[in-house]
C-alpha cells in the first residue's frame, strides 16, 4: 500500500468517506478491482514513483492520475512490507482464484473423494491468501503455518463429510428440503473452517501482539511531514491483534455466506425449469456465472464491514497504551485483509 512507500507526507486515505460503510465499500471495490492485475511491472514502478513524489512534497495536489496510481499501489503492495503480494493471493484476484474452487465445492452430487479434494484445495488457497495478506509486524513460522493448515483442512473435511452423512438420514423433512440442505453443506464447511483458518494462520499475532501507533492530529501530521520523521510504534498489543484477527475471520464468513448460499439455491430452482432440463450441459456454465456474479458484489461488501486501518481508544487495550493515544486518545493498527 501507499503507506509503505518513502516520504513523510501521507496521502488521503481514500476518495471516499471511510467512516461510513458505503464509503468503505467503494474503497474495497477499488482494492479488489481485477483490472489492476493487468498492470505491468513498469506500470507499477511508475505508480510507485508518482505516489512517492506526492509523499515527498514534489506534487502538491491529488489528481486523477495520482488517485489511479494510489489504486494500483494499494491493490498490489502489502501495507507492512511494501512488497507486491503474490498475484493469485491479492484481493484483486480473489474472485478469479476462488471461482473454480467454489464451483467445484458446489458441484451437485459430489461424492466423498470429490468433497475431500475440493475442501483441501479450498483450505490450501485460504492459507495462502491469509498468509499473504496478514499483518507482517509479527511473522509466522513455517512449522506453525503447516500445523494451522492441517488443522483447517481437518476441520473443513470433518464438517463437510459429517453433514453429508447426516442430511440423508433426516426423515422428517421433504425431499426438496433435503436437496437444499445438501447443497448448503459446503457453506457450513467453508464458513466454519474459513474462520478457523484465519485464527490458526494468524495465531502468532494474538500470542505476540501487533504494532500499534498513535492517531495523529492534523497539527501533528503537518509537523511529521515537515520534519520527515516516521511515526514510531507504541509497542505490540495482543488485544489489538485479537480484534484484528477476529474481524478478519468474521469478514471471511460474511464473504462466504452469499457466495456459498445464493448460487446453489438459485441453481436448485433453475434445474426445475424446462430450459435447463433440456440443456443439462448448461448446468456448469450457469453455476459458474452465478458464482462469479455473486462473488463480484459480495467481496467489497464483506471487506468493508470493518476498516482495514482500525482506530480504537488506547484505554481499551493493555495498560501500557493507556494515556498514550494520539488524537482523542486513539491508537491505530493494520487489521490485515
Instruction: Quickly count the helices.
Output: 12
Beta-strand content estimate: 5-15%
Number of strands: 4
Distance between the termini: 12 Å
N-to-C series of helices and strands: HHHHHHHHEHEHHHEE
Helix content: 55-70%
Morphology call: globular
Radius of gyration, in Å, reads: 22 Å
List keywords for this structure.
mainly alpha; 337 residues; single chain; globular; four-stranded antiparallel β-sheet
Please describe the topology of this protein.
Blueprint: H1 21-31, H2 41-55, H3 64-76, H4 94-105, H5 112-132, H6 142-166, H7 175-201, H8 203-208, E1 210-214, H9 218-227, E2 235-237, H10 238-270, H11 274-278, H12 283-303, E3 309-313, E4 330-334
Antiparallel strand pairs: 1-2, 1-4, 3-4
Molecular structure report:
With 337 residues, the chain is mainly alpha-helical. The protein is built from 12 helices and 4 strands. The protein has helices at 21-31, 41-55, 64-76, 94-105, 112-132, 142-166, 175-201, 203-208, 218-227, 238-270, 274-278, 283-303; strands spanning 210-214, 235-237, 309-313, 330-334. It has a 4-stranded antiparallel sheet with strand order 2-1-4-3. Helix 10 (238-270) runs antiparallel to helix 12. 36% of the residues are buried. The mean pLDDT is 85.
How would you summarize what this structure contains?
By secondary structure, the chain is mainly alpha-helical. The chain contains 12 helices and 4 strands. The chain has a 4-stranded antiparallel beta sheet.
Amino acid at each position: 500500500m501507499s503507506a509503505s512507500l518513502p516520504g513523510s507526507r501521507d496521502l488521503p486515505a481514500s476518495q471516499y468517506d471511510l467512516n461510513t460503510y458505503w464509503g468503505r465499500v467503494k474503497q474495497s471495490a477499488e482494492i479488489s478491482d481485477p483490472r489492476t492485475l493487468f498492470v505491468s511491472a513498469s506500470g507499477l514502478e511508475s505508480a510507485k514513483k508518482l505516489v512517492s513524489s506526492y509523499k515527498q512534497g514534489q506534487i502538491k495536489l491529488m489528481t486523477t492520475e495520482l488517485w489511479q496510481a494510489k489504486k494500483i499501489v494499494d491493490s498490489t503492495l502489502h501495507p507492512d512490507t511494501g512488497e507486491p503480494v503474490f498475484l493469485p493471493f491479492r484481493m484483486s484476484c480473489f474472485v478469479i482464484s476462488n471461482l473454480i474452487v467454489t464451483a467445484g465445492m458446489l458441484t451437485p452430487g459430489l461424492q466423498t473423494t470429490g468433497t475431500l479434494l475440493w475442501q483441501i484445495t479450498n483450505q490450501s488457497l485460504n492459507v495462502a491468501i491469509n498468509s499473504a495478506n496478514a499483518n507482517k509486524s509479527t511473522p509466522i513460522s513455517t512449522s506453525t503455518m503447516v500445523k494451522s493448515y492441517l488443522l483447517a483442512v481437518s476441520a473443513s473435511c470433518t464438517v463437510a463429510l459429517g453433514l453429508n452423512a447426516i442430511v440423508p438420514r433426516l426423515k422428517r423433512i421433504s425431499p426438496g428440503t433435503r436437496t437444499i440442505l445438501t447443497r448448503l453443506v459446503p457453506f457450513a464447511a467453508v464458513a466454519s473452517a474459513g474462520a478457523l483458518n484465519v485464527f490458526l494462520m494468524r495465531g502468532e499475532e494474538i500470542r505476540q501482539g501487533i504494532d500499534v501507533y498513535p492517531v495523529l492530529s492534523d497539527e501533528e501530521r503537518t509537523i511529521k511531514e515537515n520534519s520527515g520523521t516516521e511515526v514510531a510504534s507504541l509497542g505490540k498489543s495482543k488485544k489489538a491483534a485479537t480484534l484484528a484477527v477476529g474481524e478478519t475471520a468474521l469478514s471471511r464468513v460474511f464473504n462466504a455466506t452469499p457466495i456459498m448460499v445464493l448460487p446453489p439455491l438459485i441453481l436448485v430452482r433453475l434445474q426445475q425449469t424446462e430450459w435447463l432440463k433440456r440443456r443439462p450441459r448448461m448446468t456448469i456454465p450457469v453455476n459458474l456465472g452465478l458464482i462469479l456474479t455473486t462473488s463480484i458484489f459480495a467481496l467489497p461488501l464483506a471487506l468493508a464491514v470493518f476498516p482495514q486501518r482500525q482506530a480504537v481508544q488506547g484505554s481499551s487495550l493493555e495498560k501500557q497504551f493507556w494515556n498514550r493515544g494520539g488524537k482523542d486518545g486513539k491508537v491505530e493498527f493494520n487489521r490485515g485483509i
